[in-house]
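From the pipeline queue, job 12 of 40. The input is one protein chain; the requested action is below.

Action: predict structure.
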Amino acid sequence: MNLSPLGISPARVAAPLPTVRGSVNATLLLTAAKLATEQGADLCAIWGSDERDRDRGLLLRVALIDRDGMTILEHDLASETASVPDLSAFFPAAGRMQRATFDLVGIPWDGEDQRPWLWQAAWPIDQFPLRRDFTVSPKWQPGVESYEFVRVEGEGVHDIAVGPVHAGIIEPGHFRFQVVGEKVLRLEERLSYVHKGIEKRFESMTVNQAYRLAGRVSGDATVAYAWAYAQAIEALVQASVPPRALALRALCLERERIANHLGDLGYLGNDAGFAFGLAQFSRLKEDVLRVNHRAFGHRMLMDAIAPGGIASDPSAAALGDMAVQCDALQQEVERLRDIYDEHAGVQDRFRNCGIVTPALARQLGLDGLAGRASGRARDARIDHPTPPYGELNVRIATRNEGDVAARTAVRFDELFESLRLCRVLLANLPLGATSVPLQHPPAYTLGIGYVESWRGPVFIALEAGPGGVVRRCHPHDVSWQNWPVLEHAVIGNIVPDFPLINKSFNLSYSGHDL
């Protein structure tokens, strides 16, 4: 993003991609948002921090990204009661981020929707957990929240409340449908039931310890989060990670992608009434997880990546197992794809279901896998390649139909590409060290991490404090951008298709609610 029309002199930020930041007042913030949309930039994240102990007041940060790199706009509030302009007119996904920023830091925003988002009466509404003077009181008792859903008025319109507790193993989320018969007129989501205070927990840890917490923000993307966190700290201390460690990180990231795509393809078949698909893909996913455990000591690859490198170096036998498995998976998934593509019942459920047009995807900022299925050719492995991805020539998978069938096809294509990448990585694995020691980063410095998880981009903003502690860490999942789009994708569909549409996005609750 080009800031020169705003007269801002940007400063460099330690990051694995070109990143600059600049200070803006409220007027310039709004102007910058308008300029960003005109230049084709997307909203990456919004977060706040309490800088009153450093005589800066409350500080708002807005991260924007395009193919040239990342821009971070910083706005110091003149007072604790000063409000910030609403950015949702330019970036629709900003609305919930703004509401969460108020709940945690107390930064007020202009705009119509002033309902709490993360706050659910677990703490007094006039207390803000991410302020420096926040203290937990044992006298607090959980309250009762009253959340007003938007209603559609009209003859024959009915409410259907789904959740927040579900019959399956998914995490809690409330979905309020407005329907006529079975046709969906409107869906409104109420999330944040699994808010765990992760950002506050970071502040009690050292920078070199907190990678384990980062890897647990969303367990199904543990590799991506741990790598993004490692990128942030390594950028702060200007560490040079050994080539073998970088290659093994990429291998873990692609195996994480393979495992999740296998699982999703099985569940998509199951939600379309094709239990055979669930059985076969679940079997294949289990095989991948078992090899993960033999190679890296954990089925989900948790804690495989550590700052400075990788935690363990797989044995030659384990590396051979992974190579053999790539060839076996290729053959089996090719056969299963033919079955899915030729099964009339499955295709009848998949096609023209849960459509997000390319125009709507651009307007709403749909990102990651779901965005690629709606014509948005964006992938951080290609647009902002971190080593070794610059040498791997990643092939992007896209579709334009934007329906469940398109999101399924992208999963198949990405799965095959990940198998190819794993073969290349295994065949060309460098020799040498797998880690380097890291020093504590300088106090009050900001580092950025940015990694393409199987779901979409994962962003980490890490600020170090005195003595090597975490002063502020904001992890951001692409689900913040994509959950609101799901509300649009179900409009005009029937209620029984919602589980299928929802699974085709497969967004994170934990990574969103933090």
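Job complete. The mean pLDDT is 94.
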